[in-house]
Amino acid sequence: MPFVVVLFLRLHLLRAQGVRKFSKNFEDPLYICLQMCYNKITESNTTHNIIEVAKMKNAIEIAADIRNAAEWDNDLCAELCEAAGMENEWNAADGETFESVVNAAAEKLGVEIY
């Protein structure tokens, strides 16, 4: 059951029981319900943002490793393409097209590989 529906049902039950105050900080069960929804959304967004920052840091490190390598490293190129969400393009690439795929992945991530 979706989180908001559960909160609504809890709120309805609390109101049916005549609950109006929990403490001096929380005057209304509706306020608590809305605060819980906000906290859940914020928590989700924060987690998403942390994951995105971790991906970006990883992409920067991968790009630095590619720049410092003497020749193309298939594993590093595959990692960069994965970080950019371009696994299918990487898997479809061949000896002629892999470089354009890696360049597109780097551009998508906003990192320099040269």
Description:
By secondary structure, the chain is mostly helical. It contains five helices and no strands. It has helices spanning 3-16, 29-68, 74-83, 87-92, 98-109. Helix 1 (3-16) runs antiparallel to helix 2 (29-68) and helix 2 runs antiparallel to helix 3. The longest helix is centred in the middle third of the chain and has 40 residues, at 29-68. The model is unreliable at 21-26 (pLDDT under 50).
Distance, first to last CA: 49 Å
- Tally of contiguous helical segments: 5
Structural class determined from secondary elements: mainly alpha
Low-confidence stretches: 21-26
Average pLDDT score: 75
What is the helix fraction of residues, given as a range? over 70%
Strand content: under 5%
Please state the CA-atom Rg, rounded to the nearest Å: 24 Å
What oligomeric state best describes the polypeptide chains here?
single chain
**Biggest pleated-sheet summary:** none
Give the SSE string: HHHHH
Q: How would you describe the shape?
A: elongated
Total number of strands: 0
